[in-house]
Amino acid sequence: MLDEQGKSSFDPTFKGGDTSSKAMTVNFEESGRGEPGPVLMIHGAGGSSASWFMQLKAMSDQLHVLALDLNGHGKTPDRAEPDVTRSYLDDIREVVKQLDRPFLCGHSMGGALIQLYALENPESIAGIILVGTGARLKVNPMIFDLLDNDFEGYVEATGDFMFHEKTADEVKEASMAEIRKCPAAITKRDFEVCNQFDIMTQVSEIRLPTLVIVGEDDVMTPVKYSKYLADMIPDSNISIIPFAGHAVMLEQPKEFNKAVFEWLRSLDQG
């Protein structure tokens, strides 16, 4: 909420939390409070809640932002479930059920997951934000080879392909340090989830307000993927952000956050 001077009346210090039951524990980080919202953010392959650091930090004066760690990532223990995709959807559901119809925001694999969630549980969420993702996410076999045989080579390749050439070195280095924290086996299973994901013929069935965001120079999930989503999902808008690659929310956080704010406000005013 904002006070009469337009300043936040809520301390934006990050809070950690989890949803715990006999079956599962899901860690999440949260910051801020405000309307509209809340916004629950889902990371991509090999990522964690840290992927959304610049959103937790900068959006907290106006929004309630949460970022979860999927099964086996960050601070969420690995449940080693046979159906990995289902386990990730269960993680999302565990947090969503604590909230009042949140918006879901997903990057790359996280974007695939929230598309599936939107098809299965549209009544429980208010809308979705799809970031650097597609309706199908086929994975280059080189990634699996590197994960099997040269994890550091995978990390270095990620640094080469995930970012725009003008992205600050400190952003790249911090991101690569986070990537190293996720075990190769878990990162590999994430990419297997991506490789199996294909809802090209179903994506038009999503009936929720949708914002599609992509870096103009994303080579991992090119702009054409996002344009397809925007063309196929009836109630959708697209924002193509210059000087950004696949990690658009870290590379151009001000422009990313602005796009989210403006879209949410347009829904609120509508």
CATH class descriptor name:
Alpha Beta
CATH topology: Rossmann fold
Order of secondary-structure elements: EEEHEHEHEHHHHEHEHH
Overall shape: it is globular
CATH architecture annotation: 3-Layer(aba) Sandwich
What is the tally of helical segments? 10
N- to C-terminal separation?
Answer: 20 Å
Low-confidence stretches: 1-15
Keywords summarizing the entry:
alpha/beta; 16% strand; single chain; disordered N terminus; 270 residues; 8 strands; eight-stranded mixed beta sheet; 40% helix; globular; Rossmann fold
Task: Explain what this protein looks like in three dimensions.
- By secondary structure, the chain is an alpha/beta fold.
- The protein has a single domain, classed as Alpha/Beta hydrolase fold, catalytic domain (Rossmann fold, 3-Layer(aba) Sandwich).
- Helices cover 40% and strands 16% of the residues.
- The protein has an eight-stranded mixed beta sheet, with helices on both faces.
- Mean pLDDT is 90; it is low at 1-15.
